[in-house]
Amino acid sequence: MRRTVPRRSWALGALVAIAALAVSQVGAGPLTKKRAAENAPKVDESVGDLAYVFQNGETAVEGVGLVSGLDGTGGDTPPSWHRDQLVDEMAKAGVEYPSKKLESKQFALVIVRMKIPTGAAPRDRFDVELELPPASSVKSLAGGYLMHTRLREVLHASGAPKTGSELGSASGAVMIGDAKDGSNPKAGRVLGGGRVKKDHPYKLILKDNRRFVRNAGMIEKVVNERFRQNEHGQKKGASTAKTDTYLELRVPDVYHQNQERYFRVVQLLPMVDTPQLREKRVAATARELLDPKTSGVAALKLEALGPSAAQALEAGLKSEDPHVRFFAAEALAYLDQASGVKVLGETAVAMQQYRAYALAALAAMDEPTARARLRHLMDESDIEVRYGAFNAMRMVEPNDATLGQVRILDDPRSEEGVDDESPDAMAVAIINSRRPRPEDPFALYIVDSEGPPVVHVSRTRRSEIVVFGRGQNLVPPLVLGQGDILLNAADHDDAVDISKIVPSRFGDSDVKIHSSLEIGEVIRHVARLGATYPDVVAIIEAADRQKNLPGPLFVDSVPKANMKYLNKALLGKDEAPKMDEEVKTASGSFLRRMFNIRGREDDGAKKPDKADKSDGDDSDDAKAADAADSKTAGSKAKSDARTKSDAKGSDAKASDDAEKPAAKKDDALQKTSGEAASASSDDSSSRPGRPRMFDVFRRRGE
């Protein structure tokens, strides 16, 4: 009998295929090596000649959330996919009869949306937007609180939406209004209420003709030799080569407030460096630094060379040209050299086009002189300088005593009525030490400042009230209130009565507090009675309208973005920018992320009672930003309608010496969180995840 081998023909075919593949690989090897050698980095090439930073835009996430604490303005929503999702989430969380809960007037189902920009980290905070589903019976979200909500990517196609993995979460007090109508009670925002679960790193993409493993490895080495920092006690480089196509790029802490600058410095790193080459480069670039036309890029080149170029940069501090001095001082700051601190402080005050960047550079330094300069700038009369310096200091040293942070809620550890010498004192102290300290509903700062009295509130990115100048008192007569909380003081009174109306069928009495007129104390008492941040902001804005504040009130007074910096410092151009081939930013770029160009463009010195009347004009800077931002590697160009603020500059308004009007009930005395503010300010909402100036400091201590 003849023996046969099963599948013999298949085995022979496989052997032939393997042999052919081996031959092809042998033949291709020398060619590949030749191409790699031809495209190896040259002596005069930098990282930007081989690769560019790709930021990959932003990721939209959403979820279905539950707003609680409504004062009879909530309601149910018809059966839908969103309702089924929320009922399922509530059931998994152990809530009994979730459908019954949704029928209550104290609750509202909302759709929660957030944008996650590339570069986001778990420590970051983003604004989230709330929207009611179609046919919802909810009348208002005012006074509500968004309970913890999971956020995922959602694909809306035919049939039921498809959800991806969880990327973030959101929760917090609701401030009503949206981009179209700041007083819309059926829409809302949670300031800084969104978080992400993981890092969303940047990518350094190799250009098509330079995509070789060897080049990727060389770029990784070059970047890591220049940029290393401690992470969990270990020194790690800023880049990691993943394939022959791209590297992951991390931003060092020192550059988190000006990330586009970091990307440009990375692209200017020389691929081939020796002591002799470095000496020649420093000498040539030092001459370029002293020329106002090339000083911006020259400072970046010297910064890329590291601390060894500090001496050449210090020569620029002696220039008669203020631009040269600023660019030299800025580069020295990112090298952590204190010699340019004075110039940066002077620039922040005198040169508005560079103000934001000068403050960012001061905040990037780990030098006592830089912090002292920021403290000094908090005394300036210009609110942009003042609040910008405060913001920078808070991110650098959040616990600095000069910030004047005040606790709002009482510490449970400080029990009243217990004698320290009593036998039970130790037991009570031990029990109280185990209690968690309650979290304040918002941040309150009373800054000991020598400048004129000012109150500043935030409507984007964070819930925060800053009072510049200690001892500021409300000016009577006053009748203020929000919801069930009322404030009353007659003319010439030295105190204010704060009442909380407690509707009850069981005879519970109203709560009454007798407080001094000091603004900080009044805010603390109101918050302890249950007022949310939107409620407190509405009361402050009503007080401003009624002339009850000793000084002006400002909202989101942040330094403005200025395309002159991008052109001159990063691109080395004076005219309108045409995108440099080396600088290929994406839709989530520095200018949009840092200065919120795609959202509301607030000049930061606007009184809240002046509405924004322009709703379609494009400013020159915004157009230039869009031009620079639209040439994104691998992404489609997008243009967004932007508004430009008609508010005046940042000078504080003069105090009104005229006789105070008779006290009258404010029109905004209703349970509508933020309504008073929305009636008196322009569109105060911002695209979620789009930080304003210095919000990018969030990675440092927030």
UniProtKB/TrEMBL annotation:
Q: Where is this region: Disordered?
A: 594-702
Q: Which Gene3D superfamilies does the entry link to? A: Leucine-rich Repeat Variant
Q: Give the UniProt subcellular location, in the record's own words.
A: Bacterial flagellum basal body
Q: Which domain of life is it from?
A: Bacteria
Q: Name one Pfam family in it.
A: FlgI
Q: What does this protein do?
A: Assembles around the rod to form the L-ring and probably protects the motor/basal body from shearing forces during rotation.
**Name of the molecule in the record:** Flagellar basal body P-ring protein FlgI
What is the originating organism of this protein? Paludisphaera mucosa
